[in-house]
Structure formats: structure tokens, C-alpha cells
Design brief:
Layout: E1 3-7, H1 11-22, E2 26-30, E3 48-51, H2 53-61, H3 65-69, E4 72-75, E5 77-81, E6 87-91, E7 99-103, H4 104-117, E8 121-123, E9 126-132, E10 137-142, E11 153-157, E12 161-163, H5 170-177, E13 183-198, E14 213-218, E15 221-227, E16 233-240, H6 253-263, H7 265-270, H8 274-280, E17 284-292, E18 295-296, E19 300-302, H9 305-308, H10 317-335, H11 339-371, H12 375-390, H13 398-404, H14 410-427, H15 440-451
Parallel strand pairs: 1-2, 1-12, 2-8, 5-14, 12-19
Antiparallel strand pairs: 3-7, 4-7, 5-6, 9-10, 10-11, 13-16, 13-17, 14-15, 15-16, 18-19
Helix pairs in contact: 1-4, 1-10, 2-10, 10-11, 11-14, 12-15
Bound molecules: flavin-adenine dinucleotide (FAD).
Flavin-adenine dinucleotide binds next to helix 1, strand 3, strand 9, helix 9 and helix 10.
Length: 453
């Protein structure tokens, strides 16, 4: 019998289990937490995620995209809330292109249900403590089961093992501690985040435009909000930890209220218990993890955030993890059951892509918080949109390459976007640029000058 074990029943571990079960593997998934399908949501940890084409493609391959999309809300663009109360809508792509707001919890529960329906054995309250790579054994601390004999520690053998236990992966730590040449880089950005729930209006009415990702850009920080099926929005404040305007300064009810009144006045009106939420919800940090190697021979592989955690500003962490599953699947087909070849090619292919999306995500933080309200930036985006409209095969904006073009690798998207940015910086210096965004002759001229050389 073909067998595999997965650490972590999060988004990627659950999806991976479905892929492997479909290939005839008997799968055990070991999850640290209890079964979230039977537990209450922790306040301030409801997070919703943007699911886009790469993730959808991976869900389609195992036939579960429609079921997942049923619990999503299409978002066609960014809805910008300026400080002076004015609004602007910036479409994400061409008409018909959109991303989907999905509750992390609902998505995770659905993937676990589907995994079980495919025969996957999900085991909860099993916190990985250690992997013995010589003996091919896992050691768990089993929590919340004091009545069970030997509840404290449990050791189980594995044949093929995937570490899908997220950004602070215990599988990765064990791998690192038993590896001579393991490379590890961990970087935090200067901002943390805090969730603030924007309730629905009467009868589940959406109090903001439903089909958009809302952004309140304020240069050094920003607030975003994604819609939920019940009419509420999950807001997230990305805000510096330290400095004049920072979490460390907002320590009293008065300072919090006055900050929101000055900076996000419409939020004060929308969230009646704003101050209570601010103090009761946790402040979390945002990490990028780059590491290598991800594998050990034909027996072990890191996947998803455990291999490549990224900051959330391109909405790609989960999508990249889902794409990992799809790439692994293609390699299983290519190399049959030869796991040495499958895993080796997997990390060779995916590492440059993971590094690229990590860098793109950090860059997009600057774009979202500082530039989405800048008229020069908006003009640049308008010209890029026109270039894409008239010359779709010659110019695909970076956002569209990453979000709507799963056939373009992240590493290619990064290279293309760097070259495009150089071109756009030259174009933005042109005298006639301000009045030319809607001028077809101007767009044609740019193409001749820069793209047909
Ligand atoms: P996780 O989802 O973290 O799952 C890991 C699982 O492993 C968990 O169930 C955990 O309990 C379990 N585990 C951990 N340690 C152990 C252990 N020792 N033993 C056993 N089990 C263990 N991505 C997008 O694509 N779009 C977005 O819009 C988006 N927005 C985001 C917003 C925020 C604020 C954040 C923080 C992230 C966002 N992401 C987004 C990223 C996305 O959440 C992650 O990329 C995704 O959750 C990774 O899935 P994973 O399964 O690899 O890890």
C-alpha cells in the first residue's frame, strides 16, 4: 500500500492530502489543533483570503473548485477610500477578471471535509515535536487528551512525509537542526496587523460596496476590508509597531478613538465597538521565510508556508501553496513513483518562484499603502491598462501576470515587472504624458518605441 504522512491540516496540507489520495495513497494528516469544524471562532482571527486563478486552477485539477467558489465573493477591483472622503474604483484586470474573498476558516473546513470524503485520515491534537530522519519517525505531543494512555508523547513511523505546518513549521525546524547546509532567512516588516470586523447592516446588508477589496491607503499604513457572505467585512489594519504613529502609541481609548477619527473617520461610523475590538484583538507580525533545501532524498518535503512564507500584500501565500500541490502532481505524473526525481525537480522548479513572489509581495506593500492614492501612480496604471487593452500579447500588467495568468511563472512575472517598471519610469518623464493616457496614438507610439525594438 502506498502511504504518506502530512504535518498540518491547514489549507495546503488539506489540499495536498486530496491530491495524494486521488493518486492512491493512504494519507495520515497530523494536526496540532483540535478539529476547527467543532470549535468557536477566536475573536479577531477570522481572516478572509483572496483566492485567485493559480489557487482556483489547483482546486480545479482535483475537481473541487466549484464547491469552494460557492463560499466566495467576487472582488472586481480595489475600492479606494481617500482621507477627504472621496472614493475611486480601480479594476484589477479586464472586465470579467476578479479575485474571490473566502473565509479562511470556511475554506479550511471545506477542504478537511473533502479530504475525509477522499478517505484521508485527519488526526487532531497531534503537535509535531520532532522528526527523526535516520529512523523515519515522527514524535508528537498529543494535547487535550490526558485521559488517553501515553497521551503525552507518541512516536509513529512514516514512509513519505510532507511538512505543511505553516510559517513557523516544526517540520522545518527539525529538518534544519539535522542538516549541515540548510539556508534560512527570516525577515519581518516594520508593520503588524490587527483585525477589525465591520458588521453587516440591517438584514445582512453590505454597508460598503460588496464586490470589491476596500483600501484606505495612508502612506505609512493602511486598512483593508474584504467582504463576507453574511454582509460583514473583515477589516485589517496594517500599522507600524513603533514610531510616532504606531501600535506602541495607541495605548488608551482616547488615543485610539482620536487616531481613527482623524485617519479613518468612516470606519468610526461603521464599527460601533471599534475601541473594544482594538484592545481585545491580537496584534500579529508578518514574516517572510526563505529557506533551502526543502527536501531530503525521496522521503521528505516542505510545502506551502513551511517552505516559503510571504507577506500578504499580493494575496498569494495560499495561492502559491495550492500551486505547489499542482506542480507536485504534474511531477508525479512525469516521474511516476520515483520520489527522488519528483522531489528534486519540485524544489528546483519552485524555489525561484517562491523567492520571486516573496519579493513581489513586499514590493506590493509599498504600492498598496502609499501609491494607490497618488495621482502619478494612477496615471501610470491607466497607461498600463491601455497598453494591455490594445496590445494584450505585448503588455500584461504585473498584477495580472501574478493574479490572472497561472501559465506565467512567478519568477518570470518578477523579471517582466522589473523591465516594465523601467519602461514606465521613462514614459512617465515624457512631456505629453499627463494628457495622453486615453490617446491611442500615444499608446501605439510607446509600443513601437519600447516593445518592438
Ligand atoms: P497554514 O495555513 O498556516 O497551516 C498550517 C497548519 O499546520 C495549521 O493547521 C497549524 O495548526 C498546523 N501546525 C502548525 N504547527 C504544527 C505542528 N507542530 N504539528 C502539527 N501541526 C502543526 N494568501 C492568499 O493566497 N491570499 C490572501 O489574501 C492572503 N491573505 C493573508 C492575510 C494575512 C493577514 C495573512 C497572515 C496571510 C494571508 N495569506 C493569504 C497567506 C495564507 O494565509 C498562507 O499562505 C496559507 O495559510 C498557507 O497555508 P499552509 O497550509 O501552508 O499554512
Amino acid at each position: 500500500m502506498k502511504e504518506a504522512s502530512i504535518i498540518g491540516a491547514g489549507l495546503v496540507g488539506s489540499l495536498l492530502s486530496i491530491y495524494l489520495a486521488k493518486k492512491g495513497y493512504a494519507i495520515s494528516v497530523h494536526e496540532r489543533r483540535g478539529d476547527m469544524r467543532n470549535e468557536e471562532v477566536e475573536a479577531g482571527r477570522s481572516i478572509n483570503l483572496a483566492l485567485s486563478d493559480r489557487g482556483i486552477q489547483a482546486l480545479k485539477e482535483v475537481g473541487i473548485a466549484d464547491e469552494v467558489l460557492n463560499i466566495g465573493i467576487p472582488m472586481h477591483g480595489r475600492y479606494i477610500h481617500n482621507l477627504d472622503g472621496s472614493h475611486a474604483f480601480q479594476p484589477y484586470g479586464k472586465e470579467g477578471q476578479y479575485i474571490n474573498s473566502v473565509s479562511r476558516r470556511e475554506l479550511n473546513c471545506k477542504l478537511m471535509d473533502l479530504a475525509e470524503a477522499h478517505g484521508v485520515k485527519l488526526q487532531f491534537n497531534q503537535k509535531l515535536d520532532h522528526i527523526n530522519f535516520k529512523k523515519n519517525e515522527l514524535s508528537f505531543k498529543t494535547e487535550q487528551q490526558p485521559q488517553t494512555p501515553n497521551a503525552k508523547h507518541q512516536t509513529v513511523p512514516y514512509k513519505l512525509l510532507f511538512g505543511a505546518d505553516g510559517a513557523y513549521s516544526a517540520a522545518r525546524l527539525s529538518h534544519m537542526l539535522q542538516h549541515n547546509l540548510f539556508e534560512y532567512h527570516q525577515t519581518y516588516i516594520d508593520c503588524g496587523y490587527k483585525e477589525l470586523s465591520i458588521p453587516a447592516g440591517e438584514n445582512g446588508r453590505f454597508l460598503l460596496e460588496k464586490n470589491a477589496l476596500h483600501i484606505w491607503p495612508r502612506k505609512e499604513y493602511m486598512l483593508i476590508a474584504l467582504p463576507n457572505l453574511d454582509g460583514s467585512f473583515t477589516g485589517t489594519l496594517f500599522f507600524p509597531f513603533k514610531g510616532d504613529m504606531s501600535f506602541e502609541k495607541l495605548t488608551t481609548e482616547e488615543t485610539v478613538l482620536s487616531f481613527f477619527q482623524q485617519t479613518f473617520p468612516d470606519i468610526v461610523a461603521l464599527v460601533p465597538d471599534l475601541v473594544k475590538q482594538f484592545f481585545s484583538h491580537p496584534t500579529s507580525s508578518l514574516v517572510t521565510v526563505k529557506c533551502f533545501p526543502w527536501i531530503r532524498d525521496d522521503k521528505f518535503c516542505l510545502i506551502g508556508d513551511a517552505a516559503h512564507a510571504i507577506v500578504p500584500f499580493f494575496g498569494q501565500g495560499m495561492n502559491a501553496g495550492f500551486e505547489d500541490c499542482s506542480v507536485l502532481n504534474q511531477l508525479m505524473e512525469k516521474h511516476s513513483e520515483n520520489w527522488t526525481e519528483i522531489l528534486d525537480e519540485f524544489q528546483t522548479l519552485r524555489k525561484p518562484d517562491a523567492d520571486a513572489i516573496a519579493d513581489l509581495a513586499v514590493n506590493n506593500f509599498t504600492e498598496m499603502r502609499a501609491k494607490t492614492a497618488d495621482p502619478k501612480f494612477l496615471l501610470q496604471k491607466k497607461i498600463e491598462a491601455q497598453l494591455h487593452e490594445f496590445y494584450p500579447d505585448k503588455w500584461i500588467p504585473a498584477y495580472s501576470q501574478v493574479t490572472f495568468s497561472p501559465h506565467i511563472r512567478y519568477s518570470e512575472a518578477l523579471q517582466n515587472s522589473q523591465r516594465q517598471e523601467e519602461i514606465m519610469q521613462e514614459i512617465m518623464q515624457k512631456e505629453d504624458v499627463a494628457n495622453s493616457a486615453n490617446n491611442r496614438a500615444f499608446i501605439d507610439k510607446i509600443v513601437k518605441e519600447y516593445l518592438e525594438k
